[in-house]
Structures are given as C-alpha cells and as structure tokens.
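writing this on my phone so excuse typos. first protein, seq and then structure
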Amino acid sequence: YYTNAEMNLAINEANRLFVLLTLCLEKSVSFSLSSGTTWYTDLRGTLTDFILPLRVTASNVRVSPSNFSELDCLSDTWEAATGTPTQYAQRGFNALAIYPHPSGSGTSLSITYAFEPAALSSDSDIPEIPLEHHPDLVDCAVYLCRLKEGGQEFQKGLAFYGRFLDACTKY
C-alpha cells in the first residue's frame, strides 16, 4: 500500500524527530574563533549536522548558554566586548554569538553538540540512535504513513505515535 520511497521518507522523518526530541546523538569538535568576531553565521556550512550545542568550553572553562535579551542587559555594546569567552547565544540552527569575543587569534571552543542523523537510504542502513529504540522508529513511521489516509485509519495511527512519544520521554 505504501511505496518504498514513502516508507523510507517516514523512517527518516521518525529518525530525525527522535533525535530532535531526545538529543541522543552527540559529537565533539574544536571550533576556531576569529579575532574580533562575535557572530558566526554559517554553522551549518561548517558543522553540517549541527542541531544545538550541549556543552561549550574555552580552555577547559565552561562557556555558559545565554540569550540575546540577557546579553543586551549586560551592555548595549556587548557585541564589541573583547576577552575570554564566557557566554554564547544561538539564533536558529545557523548562527552563534560569542561574548566577549577574543581580541587575538588562537582561541577555540570545544563544542559538544547534538547532531542530525545521517539519512537512511537503503534497507541495510542502520539508524545511529540506540538499538533499543529502533522499533520506536517503526511506530512513528506507521503514524506518518497513515496521515494521508485520514479518518479512522489516521485515528488508529495515533496509538503508534503515542508509543513513539512515550519512548522519547523515557530516553
């Protein structure tokens, strides 16, 4: 009833949704900062699978998450402040602001971030999420496929989606 392409799309959507809801996939990288630069606006160009930072350090010292309202309250000119980074703020998936920004070169951040799983393209591909949650992807995929049917079939699919969401909250 469903094409192979529809099933693959549904499994991939379920896989991405599971990772987004649980942040279960982590990767650590060293991210070089440029002298005098506050904004890094092409994160997805550099870290192509980036979802959001989980832990950030500079010289083994924690760099705390913040938001733009808090940074604006610190100073009207926070974007011009220089020093050792103590805070960061994220805008969407693609922009990161560092406060204060380094005045010289050679500063890097150690960023542990949640990453987007690789797309599954063949039946032999194995999802990167923990093995015990692979059946949960099937539950979500059944729900996603049944969306197009509407009515009673959609209603029956809600139970599958509920099981999927329960699994996400238990991770």
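second protein below, same order as before
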Amino acid sequence: AAALLARGRQGAGGVQVHRIHFPSPPKPVDGATQVTQFNTLLYERLIEWESRLKGTSAVVAHDWLTMIVAEQARCRLGGRLVLTMHDTVIGKTFGKLANEDKYIAQIERWGCEAADQVIAVSAHVRGELLGVYGAKPDRVTVVPCGVDEGWFRGVRDEHLPHLRSALAPPH
C-alpha cells in the first residue's frame, strides 16, 4: 500500500488517485458502529500519510459511509469536499427511521451542508437532498449511473435472451 501511495495512480486527465487499503477490523453488532469504526481507521491512515497527501485538490466522500473522515481530510489537507450520494436513508426507509437510521440521516444532512459539491446519481435523489435535507440547489449536480451501450453492439439476436438473463434475471 505504501508503494502504491508513493507513486499514486494516474487517472484520466492527470488526476492522481490515492486509495487507502487496510484489513477489515472486527465487525461490530450494528452497521453504524462499523462505519464509524471504519472512519476512525481511515483517519489513522490519514494522519500517518498526511505529509504525502498535502496539496490535495479534492476529497471525495462516498455517501454517509466516509463523510466523517472526508471532512477531517479536507480540514487537514485542504481542497474541496465532494460528496457522492447514491440514495438517502429517508428514501430507503420511506421516512420510517429506526435510531440507527436517524444517525445516518443526520450525517447525510450534515454532509449536504458541509460539502462544496454534492453529486446525486439521479434527479430523484437530488430532489430528496433538496427537499428533505435542505441542500443548496447550486451545489447538487446529477451525474447518472450508466452503462456504455457500446459493449452490447454487435451481439447477435440469438444471444440476447441469454445475455439479458445473465444481467437481469427475471424475478
């Protein structure tokens, strides 16, 4: 991992991508505690590698799962904070929140307030972020998930049923 970090990964357009890998800790009883523990371990790595990561132009948080450590990374390293939201706990639970869900919702709301930019994967998720969490419209951009249709060009008609059943089996 240290060697990967030292050389970084060259992405599109000269973007340097640094991933932090480490073994999984013992799993706590509930998901929110596990995610908090994960953020703590990421923060320990941030402190360890801080000098090598200085000058970061952007820190990306993946949903509420890494929002806590991403904000700390932005504070320590500088740069913009970008939060990617695939859904909201309020949408997934239809607003019927258990205690753990309320904790997650608070992190999601705070993430929308703290982030310089929020990427929503659909107009529906963007609407939830604006309506439920009060996210600022000028900070929330829709970048849909997608599939490159080019992968499927040239597939002969007789193979399409098999391909479709492999990708999306009937219910």
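Residues 85 and 132 are 14 Å apart (CA to CA). thats all i got for now
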